[in-house]
């Protein structure tokens, strides 16, 4: 199976299958998750100095700060899945 990558902005990409959750950074529980990840050395800041608009949590426990809205990243993942499904169907027909 080919790894599916999704752009999270500014030339940064993430393996789509590793994403567990994408949440807004505004709530106190998410801020605690970010602070804990920073303390453990598991925080990846992919904002390029811009405002954090989404927090991505991976299955490995890494927390990724992203400057793109969660809805935008989710739409990119879905678009990639749709393209991947269409590719699989065309291979079956051949």
Task: Give the CA-CA distance, first to last residue.
Answer: 19 Å
Radius of gyration: 15 Å
Secondary-structure-derived class: alpha+beta
Shape: elongated
Task: Summarize the biggest pleated sheet.
Answer: 4 strands, mixed
Instruction: Count up the helices.
Output: 2
- Residue-averaged pLDDT: 91
Low-confidence stretches: none
Which percent range describes the beta-strand content?
25-35%
Order of helices and strands: EEEHEEEH
Overall number of domains = 1
* Number of strand elements: 6
How helical, in percent, are the residues?
Answer: 25-40%
Spatial sequence of strands, sheet with the most strands:
3-5-6-4
Task: Compile the SSE list and pairings.
Elements: E1 5-9, E2 12-15, E3 19-23, H1 28-40, E4 43-46, E5 54-58, E6 63-66, H2 70-93
Plain-language structure description:
- This protein has 94 residues and is α+β, with helices and mostly antiparallel strands.
- The chain has one domain (5-93).
- Helices cover 39% and strands 29% of the residues.
- It has two helices and six strands; from the N terminus they run E-E-E-H-E-E-E-H.
- It has helices at residues 28-40, 70-93, and strands spanning 5-9, 12-15, 19-23, 43-46, 54-58, 63-66.
- It has a four-stranded mixed β-sheet. Strands 1-2 form a two-stranded antiparallel ribbon.
- Strand 5 and strand 6 (63-66) form a beta hairpin.
- The longest helix has 24 residues, at 70-93.
- It is elongated.
């Amino acid at each position: 199976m080919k790894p599916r990558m999704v752009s999270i902005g500014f030339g940064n990409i993430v393996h789509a299958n590793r994403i567990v959750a994408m949440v807004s950074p505004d709530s106190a529980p998410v801020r605690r998750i970010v602070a804990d990840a920073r303390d453990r050395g598991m925080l990846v800041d992919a904002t390029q100095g811009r405002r954090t608009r989404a927090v991505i949590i991976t299955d490995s426990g890494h927390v990724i700060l992203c400057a793109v809205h969660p809805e935008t990243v989710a739409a990119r993942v879905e678009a990639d899945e749709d393209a991947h499904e269409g590719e699989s169907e065309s291979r079956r027909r051949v």
